[in-house]
């Protein structure tokens, strides 16, 4: 299969590329790195990416910015960081991918454990991740041609504890390579409308 991985240069993305690359032809995409670049918050940039790459069998998104701050000081502009990037960026990819996926192809998006396990400073992250999961469940019943869509919800990564550790006290981190297995299940499996929980979930 030919698979596009958006966010291929991040901690999860690198592990997903390594996992899928054992079986499939992987096209790596990043904001600045990878074989191709995309600003997925801009649907014109997403359309340009797919026009260059052409037909594919699967699309994986492991990207998206979020703002973390106390609710008392959160501004609408800070909420829009996650809404424009992690939510609408992934939705943009799903919308455009419909036209470029071969019959039976798949889309895999990324949410996160805080969709159901909120943390301090994470109101935007919980809102955005839950919205991504809601979009996937709804999109799954409408996609044509046997196309599938799933979402992977990782817990905090061992590789990211340096940055995010203080937010995730008491959470058991997992290796990015373990999270990557959930993406493989989505790409190589047969299910649709699923939330694959990668480690740490009750």
TrEMBL record:
It comes from the Bacteria. InterPro entries: NAD(P)-bd_dom_sf, SDR_DHRS6-like, SDR_fam. Signal peptide: none annotated. Keywords: Oxidoreductase. CDD domains: Lin1944_like_SDR_c (cd11731). Belongs to the short-chain dehydrogenases/reductases (SDR) family. This is Short chain dehydrogenase. It comes from Duganella margarita. The lineage of its organism: Bacteria, Pseudomonadati, Pseudomonadota, Betaproteobacteria, Burkholderiales.
């Amino acid at each position: 299969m030919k698979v596009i991985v958006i966010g291929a240069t991040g901690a999860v993305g690198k592990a997903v590329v390594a996992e899928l690359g054992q079986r499939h032809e992987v096209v790596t995409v990043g904001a600045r790195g990878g074989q191709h670049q995309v600003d997925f918050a801009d649907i014109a940039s997403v359309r340009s990416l797919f026009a260059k790459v052409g037909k594919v069998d699967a699309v994986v998104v492991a990207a998206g910015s979020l703002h973390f701050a106390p609710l008392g000081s959160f501004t609408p502009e800070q909420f829009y960081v996650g809404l424009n990037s992690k939510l609408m960026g992934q939705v943009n990819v799903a919308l455009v991918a419909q036209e470029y996926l071969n019959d039976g192809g798949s889309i895999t998006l990324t949410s996160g454990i805080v969709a159901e396990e909120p943390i301090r400073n994470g109101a935007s992250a919980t809102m955005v991740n839950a919205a991504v999961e809601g979009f996937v469940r709804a999109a799954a019943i409408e996609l044509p041609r046997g196309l599938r869509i799933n979402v992977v919800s990782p817990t905090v990564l061992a590789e990211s504890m340096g940055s995010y550790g203080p937010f995730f006290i008491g959470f058991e981190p997992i290796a990015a390579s373990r999270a990557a297995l959930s993406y493989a299940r989505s790409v190589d499996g047969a299910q649709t409308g699923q939330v694959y929980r990668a480690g740490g979930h009750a």
